[in-house]
Design brief:
- The chain is mainly beta.
- 5% of the residues lie in helices and 46% in strands.
- It is built from three helices and 35 strands.
- The strands form seven sheets. The chain has a six-stranded antiparallel sheet with strand order 24-35-26-31-32-33, with no helix packed on it.
- The radius of gyration is 24 Å and the shape is globular.
- 45% of the residues are buried.
Length: 538
């Protein structure tokens, strides 16, 4: 059977829903797919490494998040799901009122005529939501929905609107791959991810190709969109793009988030030259600090929050083969612009988003915990494998501050966060003289997350430590928000950086917490800890 006549219709049960919200809820209450999801979640709940409060899809494996948007009072997250009766990528779907408590909905977009529904983005208009995504072996597809819960989707033209081949069968000047979409004036614009050969050595490098259309059915190719990118690496590609404004008023900039199959989730910050339809890049911000696998941050899905910020959720790769599931989503993160610091521009803030506080219980609060030099201090009042920690630490002259979570009593297993003040690269825009104080004021600190001692199991794949730069002023205390959730740890540092990885303790007693100051004493001025609720408990 040829590719042209191949039957690509999904074997997954398909449902059409009413257009009224009340009637939709009635139909969902009796929906066989949702009942199947409940059964699957119940069957998987006994896996000790399945997270409690990070979103995990209800059945099968998971890949990229897609099309994050806010519509009709709800946050909608789509994702590449693999239904068991037809394990090709379909767009899975969940909704939330607060970005934390997610509710499963039936699969949203099914393959046909494409072979698989790969990654894409959404654009919310007044009367509808537009999804643009890559349909393998066909091209980039557009589908629309306007019902209250975005349950019913119709594919524009029923075919790829940006085909993978030219009408004459010749080679295209652009690559047709993961797209995003926005509107400017009378035109819709779309980026298609891909690469171009480097002009001097031919190595494939990140590129995103700009197209535009008045009706989303016929698209005109313009040119490569990015200008002045000297930050991404040779070999990076521009998959899963999301191009959105960030900041407000006179401080509005633009951000292109994307995924590199070589080096993971990234974001370019810069200025949108709307006269030339070019994105002029001024800085790069990374979401992971090494390859995305095993156990690292993967691809983004992002949308503006309407208040100058951008909400982004990433999927995370596994570090151990699990039966019936593998990847998870990060907590939602809010990206914002911080004020310029003199000559230092492009200051980014990254903080957890959504109503994470609603999951807290059993608070433990400690103050003025002394950390003697070179002595591990085990906290006897705080333990668990589904926790949130808030810490403020006066690190003084300590050369390193260490925080161990998921620690067994004899330290056979632990996952370690380390903070090295003023041990990173120097930013000469901050430089104030050769004296030690001037050098420290110019130098980044390093936040490191390491899972090399996280597990005694023989089938767990460790990864090199995540090692991220973060700038703290010389007299600024270290402030951490730490999220521990069974097989994932995320650490937010002073609202400016985040490091995250997967970990798989093998011992049931690997629930402890400890701290250590290296070289000189330090003090935990404040520590608060909470047990976190299981979102998926039945």
């Amino acid at each position: 059977m040829s590719a042209q006549t191949e039957d690509r219709r999904s074997k997954v049960p398909f449902y059409t829903f009413p257009g009224n919200r009340e009637q939709q809820e009635e139909a969902l209450a009796a929906n066989p797919m949702l009942k199947r999801f409940v059964w699957s979640r119940t069957a998987l709940a006994g896996d000790r490494h399945r997270p409690y409060y990070h979103y995990v899809n209800p059945e099968g494996t998971l890949n990229d998040p897609n099309g994050l948007c806010f519509w009709n009072g709800l946050w909608h997250l789509f994702y590449q799901g693999y239904p068991p009766e037809d394990p090709r990528q379909h767009w899975g779907h969940c909704v939330s009122e607060d970005l934390i408590h997610w509710r499963d909905l039936p699969y949203a977009i099914y393959p046909d005529p494409e072979e698989c529904c790969f990654s894409g983005a959404t654009l919310v208009e007044e009367d509808r939501v537009i999804a643009i995504y890559h349909g393998t072996k066909a091209g980039n597809m557009v589908a629309t929905s306007s019902d209250p819960l975005l349950l019913n989707w119709e594919k524009l033209t029923g075919q790829a609107v940006i085909p993978m081949t030219a009408p004459d069968g010749g080679e295209l000047p652009y690559r047709v791959f993961d797209p995003c979409i926005w509107r400017k004036g009378d035109f819709y614009y779309s980026l298609s991810g891909g690469t171009l050969p480097h002009p001097t050595n031919g190595v494939r490098t990140r590129a995103n190709f700009l197209l535009r259309s008045r009706d989303m059915e016929t698209w005109e190719y313009l040119h490569p969109f990015i200008e002045g990118d000297t930050m991404t690496k040779l070999g990076d590609d521009g998959a899963c793009p999301y191009f959105w404004p960030i900041g407000q008023g006179d401080r509005e900039r633009h951000m292109l988030l994307f995924y590199s199959h070589m080096s993971g989730g990234q974001a370019l910050l810069g200025d949108y030259d709307k006269d030339r339809d070019k994105f002029v890049v001024t800085s790069l911000h990374e979401a992971n600090f090494g390859a995305s696998g095993p156990g690292g941050v993967h691809a983004p899905s992002a949308t503006p929050d309407g208040e100058g910020g951008v909400i982004v959720i990433y999927n995370m790769n596994p570090g151990r083969v699990r039966r019936g599931w593998d990847q998870i989503m990060t907590l939602p993160r809010r990206l914002t612009l911080r004020a310029d610091e003199g000559r230092v521009r492009d200051q980014m803030a990254v903080e957890p988003a959504g109503d994470i506080e609603s999951l807290r219980s059993n608070e433990v609060s400690l103050t003025d915990v002394a950390l003697p030099a070179n002595e591990e201090v085990v906290l006897d009042k705080v333990a668990g494998d589904a926790l949130e920690l808030e810490l403020e630490i006066a690190d003084g002259d300590a050369s390193v501050i260490e925080l161990n979570v998921l620690r067994s009593p004899g330290a056979e297993e632990y996952t370690r966060f380390s903070f090295y003040r003023s041990r990173g690269f120097r930013n000469w825009a901050r430089y104030g003289g050769w004296e030690p104080a001037g050098l420290r004021a110019a130098t980044d600190s390093i936040a490191m997350l390491d899972n090399s001692h996280s597990s005694i199991l023989d089938d767990v794949s460790a990864r090199p430590p995540e090692q991220a730069p973060v700038y703290l002023a010389p007299d600024e205390p270290l402030q951490l928000r730490v999220f521990v959730d069974r097989s994932v740890v995320e650490v937010f540092v002073n609202g400016r950086q985040c490091v995250a990885l997967r970990c798989y303790p093998g011992r049931l007693d690997s629930t402890g917490i400890s701290l250590r100051a290296g070289g000189a004493p330090a003090q935990v001025t404040r520590l608060r800890a909470w047990q976190m609720a299981n979102l998926f408990a039945r």
